[in-house]
What does this fold into?
Amino acid sequence: MPIPRPRILPRSRERKLALLIGAVALPALALAVTAFWLTLRVSHQVEVESGRYNAYLAEKVIEAYERELVDEVRGALGPAEMVSRAGGTGDDVRAALASRMRLFEAPHFVPLEALEGYSLVTVEGQLLIYGEDPTGQRDHPFAAMLLYGLDGNAIGAGGWWFNPRSFVAEHLRVIVVDRLPQSPRMYGGLESTRNLAVTVLDPRGNEVAHVREGTFPRTARLAVMTGPFEGYQVRVAATPTSPVAFANRLVVIEMVFIGLLTLVLLGATFVGARYILRQIELVNAKTSFVSNVTHELKTPISVIKVAVETLELGRFSTVAERDKFLRAISRETDRLTQLVDNILDYSRLEAGQHMLARSPLDLRDVVSASMDSFRLRLEDGGFHYEVSLPAALPPVLGDARALQHCLLNLLDNAVKYSRDQKDIRVVVASGDDYVSLAVSDRGIGVPEEEQDRIFDKFARVETGLVHDVKGAGLGLSLVQMLVHAHHGRVEVTSKPGEGSTFTILLPVWDGSRGSMQG
Ligand code: ADP
It folds into this structure.
């Protein structure tokens, strides 16, 4: 009765993998995404705050420019004020203004009655009069303050045409470095302005002057000037040495850190999952191994038992009939021996105790000896077989018993996995530096995707035609281990439904004991 063989996982593997991913990887990913999001929010908030402060500071710079202009005009107006208060005429005032035009382009006096058309702005309680030239002769604005006559009444506005471009360029440094930090009304004072880059742009957006190089662009804010500086703009941004830039760099490092942590966590989950699945696979494979081996032992034992009983009771009529039972006993004993040898060799190899007794040998002798002991099974199984040996063969350094064991395993598989086409070929050949031993059958074949796996311990092809064939899944892994111990390799070429060829390649012995080519 065929024994139901436990699956080596596929479906439960998927379920367990999904469970593990669900239990560990998904929460890890969710935590990482949350950490990313929170960190980005903090960074964004810090940038917004910095931007807000920079906008505030740009306004303060503009106010400082107006104050600076008023101070300059007021300071330069001294002689003209004296002349007007002494009752001087417009021309006297103009002459007095001309004596102080170092800072400005040209003096100008507007009598009270002609003041219409000019604009007024109050800067810290002082009236600043400004405007364009109504005649259109000058392309720069006029900045002035009221002058009073002998009777204390305003007689007009005295001031200068001035170039706003040169004014903003000349005064920027003093405003940013001295005036703003010292201003008692400046929020943050000296410390907070130290890490700010301030730039003035002309109405076309071209830079006029700047204090401090390099900006952290995401925090830059722009404010447009009005009044006598109409159209000019002040841009304030944090410098790369500012706390906000530092915080931003920390955020980047933190993101990389979180990323790496997530990778490590996912990697550990993956490795852990693989390890657990491998263990489950091994446990399943061992269960399957025990049931397969038990079955493999039972069949020959019952055949031997029936044959011995028959012989004991003399239930045979001819010598040929008796020989048939004897052959069956011999054949099944060989099978049992091979199975037990496989298990013993395998556990010795696994424990690292298998000692190969290697000596130079002719592979043809190994083949002949193996064929002698296997012939019975081939003949009883109705197989047609062919052995092709070359006339001459270089020696290999090998353990004859181990190599014979390998060949018997390949032959055993060729028999087990053949169906109607009972043809087996054993071919020995030699190349430049190796000797090959190939066993071909025309059996069920091995699907391409399984061809590597079948050399694993306990591995058996679980699908397709192989289902009703018993085996422990040790034969090929044993062959591979033994061949590797000989510094050789095993290759397989196979097509499902057409057959398989398993080839053992061993290095040629180069004559010096113990050392080999290949
Ligand atoms: P076992 O034969 O005891 O199952 P092996 O390690 O010898 O174990 O083989 C592993 C698997 O490789 C087999 O279960 C079978 O599926 C496949 N296999 C091995 N040899 C052949 C062959 N000649 N033809 C088809 N399949 C094979």
In short: The two ends are 47 Å apart (CA to CA). Confidence is low (pLDDT under 50) at residues 1-9. The pocket of adenosine-5'-diphosphate is lined by residues 413-414, 416-417, 441, 443-446, 454, 459-461, 466, 471-477, 500 (CB under 6 Å). Residues 28 and 265 are 7 Å apart (CA to CA).
